[in-house]
Give the backbone structure.
Amino acid sequence: MTSLLPVIQTIHGEIAGPTVAILGGVHGDEFEGVLANRQIRNILQKSLRRGTVKFAAPAHPVAWNASTRESPTDGLNLARVFPGDMLGSPTEQIAAFLTEHLIKGSDLLIDLHSAGRNFDMALMCGYLDSSPELSLKSGNFAKIFDAPYTWKHSGPPSPGRTISTAESLGIPSIYVEGRGGGQVRIADLQTYVAGVLRILHSLSMIDACPSSSTDSVWVSGDGNTDEGIISTTSGFFCTFAEVGSHVSTGDLLGEVIDAEGLLCESVYAPSSGIVMLMRRATRVLVGDTLSIIASQL
Ligand SMILES: [Zn+2]
């Protein structure tokens, strides 16, 4: 049987230095992270001067080949099973492999996601604000990445993620989300690549990088895409608000209507803030995530 494990590519600079691990395609329906990884690798093959960069993209090859969020082999979401289990199901084995060979020993983990097929997300760089020392480091890397939105997640990390595993190993980490939807926008891809190059430049690993062009909007709150504003009915979610927009408490985000076109529920913003996520997949079941609003800092 062919290996289901991802390939880890490594590039060394001429001078010893930090090790940065970059993931893409943890979810197989997220194209930006994998393509950005390839472009970053192509650039670093000629320009990495100091340190080591390790790439695993696609991190979940069978899901990538099928363009699915979960594994077509065992149905598991790779971003929910870290740190993994070498003796577990295929997806748990991939997580264990990446924990052992990519995350451990790194000085920084960068996990490039996007909203995938089911969601729409503002282009953002997020980090965990848990342990003070790591939070300071991760927050500084997020600042250097300089995405249009920077999301500081307070409270205990959601389990099973790459960044929660990095946190438990004492390694700073950031992750990136983008518009997704099965579409890759060139400007988004350039933002991913430029943000990573700025971080490598800040670590003196490369000599030059694109200058930052955004004035990042900083937001806080839980970014767990399994939670947020949940549908209490089943039907068809029709959206009103756009990601990146400001909403006030009680503003309409969307409506769930049934197959006859009748209103099942109106979905309102429970708080003021920035719309960071809107559901893109129209058919919804009770319990599905519809939107996430984050408070502006
Ligand atoms: Zn993802």
User: Anything to note?
Assistant: Residues 31-47 form the longest helix (17 residues). Residues 229-296 form a domain with the OB fold (Dihydrolipoamide Acetyltransferase, E2P) fold (CATH 2.40.50.100). Residues 26-27, 30, 79, 113, 116 surround zinc ion (CB under 6 Å).
